[in-house]
Amino acid sequence: ASSSTMVDFLAENNLCGQAILRIVSCGNAIIAELLRLSEFIPGVFRLKDKADQQKYGDIIFDFSYFKGPETCEGKLEAKPELLDLDEEFRENNIEILTRFYLAFQSVHKYIVDLNRYLDDLNEGIYIQQTLETVLLNEDGKQLLCEALYLYGVMLLVIDQKIEGEVRERMLVSYYRYSAARSSADSNLDDVCKLLRSTGYSSQPGAKRPANYPESYFSRVPISETFISMVIGRLRSDDIYNQVSAYPLPEHRSTALATQAAMLYVILYFDPSILHTQQAKMREIVDKYFPDNWVISIYMGITVNLAEAWEPYKAAKTALNYTLDLSNVKEQASRYAAVTERVHTQVQQFLKEGCLREELVLDNIPKLLNCLRDCNVAIRWLMLHTADTTCDPNNKRLRQIKDQILTDSRYNSRILFQLLLDTAQFEFILKEMFKQMLSEKQAKWENYKKEGSERMTELADVFSGVKPLTRVEKNENLQAWFREISKQIMSLNYDDSTAAGRKTVQLIQALEEVQEFHQLESNLQVCQFLADTRKFLHQMIRTINIKEEVLITMQIVGDLSYAWQLIDRYVSRTFSLQSSIRVSPSMVTKLRATFLKLASALDLPLLRINQANSPDLLSVSQYYSGELVSYVRKVLQIIPESMFTSLLKIIKLQTHDIIEVPTRLDKDKLRDYAQLGPRYEV
């Protein structure tokens, strides 16, 4: 019984599955809201400049306010002009403060809900379900791991995007201006405890607080059994079955990258592993980080493990093998070689008329391998050469990065060109595959009909009735070809494996009959046999068009890690825009690149969609909005370039090119021809 209840964990009537799915869906929505709000922090809460400090210093408080609210309010009441300012400030900011407070509160509610779910599981509220059985189920295991990971990501995002002091000032202002302080049941107290300043600053060169972020992660206690079981699953299993999309061993760490990022975040909930458990850390590094150390943890937020694991003895020791300069050199040189090789390949494939249907169907493994190599190389190089992941004051990190730049012969323009070409190559292949999948059955049935008819006709030839040149009547062959025709007709599209095997046998039989009965001498008979074999071959090709290929392309083509990094390819230093100026044909490839980037939205939206959550709209709008503004930034160059060219054309046509009179002397023809300016136009 227990196995049948587990069959569809995500079914609507599975309360246990729906409950955790709702939590995870909510987690993705909270992160989007935090990212969205972080761009709207009212500047005055930073109290950065002198003017703000003088004007608002007396009405904006940090958590020291809670030590003696009466004293603080007393100071205000003593000065009527401060009371007026306070009232005006309240009116201007209460709306945005409320929105921030609701977001902060939702983070606290999230972890309370997750803890309650774990208690319910533990107490047997969900019939026949325990933590163990849920972790045995594929979806259950993914959701439990995601639930804890998303909580960690929320906390990191808050600290990275909304500084601790600013949070405290906003929370105190909200407390003072809202009804929260009069209502007894408000959990503002708990929200403040969870989100009080950690001392962390995202400013470059800022010192990292002691025991950060693990002490921050432990502010709300979470079941240790749950944490250790989730870490156990993430260490041992391939929880998203990604390895099958990456059969080559050298792509293994990329295949497991999503899971590696989750493990990175979740290890902060059990820092003893990072500090002292050397065997576990070695195993984790060997499996996930033998050849990479810059990872993307969520929608392009990147972390350099060389820096992040510096304070933890076991983690740092384990990672030393990876960061050894000879290993760095080996990885960088390998990617230099791979990039060069695959870029030539992709450019070959993109040549006009190269990607024809037969070529694609006969070379699926080769094309997919090329795509894997491209994407893995782009990912490694983009992450490991990113500026954001290297603190310029850290000598070791700088040294590692310089080594990479040298040995990978890094050139941002060439890398971006490879990204554009790869995206275009993927786009063409996907479109072809979708088209072929939609026509697959009709084509297959058509080839089957053609092949079968040829065999019937050939049977008639050997009946002696058909007047085909000099073929003697042969009842055996006549019966045999009739039988083959029947066999071809009996092939069943829905049982593709059996049909495929049988088709191969039929092709062999047709080859053998040709040799065996000396049918070579008759060209027309040979032609019939060759045609039928061709149709049977086409049937095999067609049956091999599988949805799995599209799914693999989707997995392999993931670009979510570049959600933020890609911006620097647009910045003035590396001007993507100048490339557009130089080669306008790039614009078609850009379309494919934007589509590739848009598939990064699948990650945060998947669970929200599965849960049928009303958050779908706002979350997808936020990320799409981000994407659209990036696209605008890149594309504004197109009208610019067009108008610049138009101006030149107008100038040439109005000033430089003289109008040709209706009659002119032959010897003046050359002067009027003005071949130079016309060529330029």
What does this structure look like?
With 681 residues, the protein is mainly alpha-helical. Among the domains are: 1-197, no CATH class; 213-323, no CATH class. It is built from 33 helices and two strands. It has a two-stranded antiparallel ribbon. The relative contact order is 0.07. InterPro entries: WASH_strumpellin (IPR019393). Belongs to the strumpellin family. One of its GO terms (biological process) is regulation of actin nucleation.
Briefly summarize what is shown:
By secondary structure, the chain is mainly alpha-helical.
Write the layout of secondary structure elements.
Layout: H1 2-6, H2 15-37, H3 50-56, H4 69-77, H5 80-122, H6 131-136, H7 138-161, H8 164-177, H9 188-195, H10 214-217, H11 224-236, H12 252-255, H13 257-267, H14 271-276, H15 278-288, E1 294-298, E2 301-304, H16 305-308, H17 313-323, H18 325-349, H19 357-362, H20 364-384, H21 395-407, H22 412-461, H23 475-490, H24 496-516, H25 523-543, H26 547-556, H27 576-582, H28 586-598, H29 602-610, H30 616-635, H31 637-656, H32 669-673, H33 675-680
Antiparallel strand pairs: 1-2
Work out the radius of gyration: 33 Å
Q: State the end-to-end CA separation.
A: 78 Å
Helix content: 55-70%
Mean pLDDT: 89
Low-confidence stretches: 1-6
The biggest beta sheet reads:
2 strands, antiparallel
**Structural class based on helices, strands and sheet pairing:** mainly alpha
Number of separate strands: 2
Strand numbers in spatial order across the main sheet: 1-2
The share of residues in extended strands comes to under 5%
Q: Count of helices?
A: 33
The shape is globular
